[in-house]
Amino acid sequence: MAAPSISQTLTTSTNPDEDSLCSVTKQEPEPGQQQQQQQECWLLGSPGRCLTGESHVERAWAHWRKLGEPKLIVAPMVDNSELPFRMLCRKYGAEAAYTPMLHSRIFTENEKYRSQEFTTCKDDRPLFVQFCANAADTLLEAAQRVEPYCDYVDINLGCPQRIAKRGNYGAFLMDNLPLVKSLVEKLALNLRVPVSCKIRVFPDLQDTLNYARMLEDAGCSLLAVHGRTRDEKDGKKLRAKWEAIKAVKNAVRIPVLANGNIRHMDDVHSCLEETGADGVLSAESLLENPALFAGFKTAEWALDGEDGSEEVKLDQADLLVEYLKLCEEYPVPWRMIRAHVHKMLGEWFRIHPHIREELNAQSKLTFDFLYDMVNRLRVLGVKVPLYVKDTRRENICQWKWCLNID
What we know:
Layout: E1 7-10, E2 24-27, H1 33-41, H2 53-66, E3 72-74, H3 83-91, E4 96-98, E5 102-103, H4 104-109, H5 111-117, E6 127-132, H6 136-146, E7 152-157, H7 162-167, H8 177-190, E8 195-200, H9 205-218, E9 220-226, H10 242-251, E10 256-259, H11 265-275, E11 279-282, H12 284-288, H13 299-302, E12 309-315, H14 316-329, H15 334-344, H16 346-351, H17 353-360, H18 367-379, E13 385-389, H19 392-397
Parallel strand pairs: 3-4, 3-11, 4-6, 5-6, 6-7, 7-8, 8-9, 9-10, 10-11
Antiparallel strand pairs: 1-2, 12-13
Helix pairs in contact: 3-14, 6-8, 8-9, 9-10, 14-15, 14-18
């Protein structure tokens, strides 16, 4: 079966349900496009060449530099970092993005799952496609389907949820490091794009450092480190350990990304400075505020004892409308859209809970209903503005992240 296409066109859909896309017609890549992408992605090296030592490290850095060394990255989020949301975040400053976690076995077996859960387009780059897995051959088969359309194939070694424990993947593979090593080696030896890994830390720092070095030796070319253990699931109550990320950065020679505690751009600057990481990932905070990487803050952070913030003519409802328009262009399952509506309009729904109840009562959503819901909130006089510092332009431009935002 063919790998998912990289472009889509929207067709008219009637009566969509929660488990289906707005109807999609897929277009095949242009002749020669797939071959060209495969040849260019991993720096003209054949699969499996020079996986360890200086050559591997040099190639890892050369690839990272070729992508522009992105610093602001959308983290992988199950059902939440899909194409329309990635494109919205890219508009507002994100320089790279992960797909949602894809289940490698289901991806290889189920064509409907492939077509609905992995979609992309030509502007959706740099792109990490993330898989969970516990069988090397299955993971490779899934990865080979997506390698023409991405810049890294990522292995999820960090999911701490109960479903990951039941399925024996994510952070629960930390109990079986030989299996983890085999997964990384299998991809590194056979793919034409580099392998990345996203991990959590062990309670013992030395175990974490040994883990990171093992992944690098196995062929990992980029490492994203979430600074919490797999038992530390509540990101609002438990701060990520940036000092552990710094130690990993100093222990390996490949690029390292930091994950945890990124709520606004001040955190980005602090994290990069304190960890020495090559980029940061944000997840939950982006769901509420997809414009985070453009310097915008929600009131929770802008008004929490901080001077010099000013209200702007942008709020989550504006961002939601932009997101919905992207969903019309790049269809995704309605369950994903519903989740984003709740995240972006959370504060609005607290003011008018009856609107949220009407949304929850809809067994089948439509774009007309959602646009009308936003208009009704505006008629009710709801406004939850975003904020920026007076020095926002200066702060952003020093990182070369200037955007043309009204």
